[in-house]
Amino acid sequence: xxxxxxxxxxxxxxxxxxxxxxxxxxxxxxxxxxxxxxxxxxxxxxxxxxxxxxxxxxxxxxxxxxxxxxxxxxxxxxxxxxxxxxxxxxxxxxxxxxxxxxxxxxxxxxxxxxxxxxxxxxxxxxxxxxxxxxxxxxxxxxxxxxxxxxxxxxxxxxxxxxxxxxxxxxxxxxxxxxxxxxxxxxxxxxxxxxxxxxxxxxxxxxxxxxxxxxxxxxxxxxxxxxxxxxxxxxxxxxxxx
Length: 241
Hints:
9 helices, alpha/beta, seven-stranded mixed sheet, 7 strands, Glycerol-3-phosphate (1)-acyltransferase
């Protein structure tokens, strides 16, 4: 049997404010309890208020690491996707949230960190080292990431072009990416509304895709983004049968 190896948490040297908005953040007891309670309530909310229907649930990987991606029209999107991950992986499931939206103030940072378990994603001036840090954590710590390759919410509900950042995360790795398509979130909570409406939401889950043969360079990233967009469009047009 291998001996125990004790190491300090990666965010041990950070202040509370820094820790909440750090991509190095790790969960403690309070966060773990918060995650479990939050996702229990969210699952009930989605089922009762939005009558959530999921197709292709059996296609979800049974253990991390993997990445869930989908079209993006609403703040509800991340809730729907993350709610599909089993409770036992709650502490290692991280929606990647816009730093300039969710981590600007102490209150929003606390909510994003303690309830959503979100990690900050820089949308502007994000260097490659930031993506590399997230990539290393995804594989090294066996995580689940929830992200939206369009980069921002669609204002009209139509699918926008996928950005190559998703390719930077998974190129030349064996990490599966699970493409999904969300229907109804734009009607339930569009970008210009503050409160959700009781509209039905449907989630189609596609087959996991791996990109071990794609080079970890600009061309490889763009090819990955294009392949994933094509699959999400297929789910949109034909559903996941």
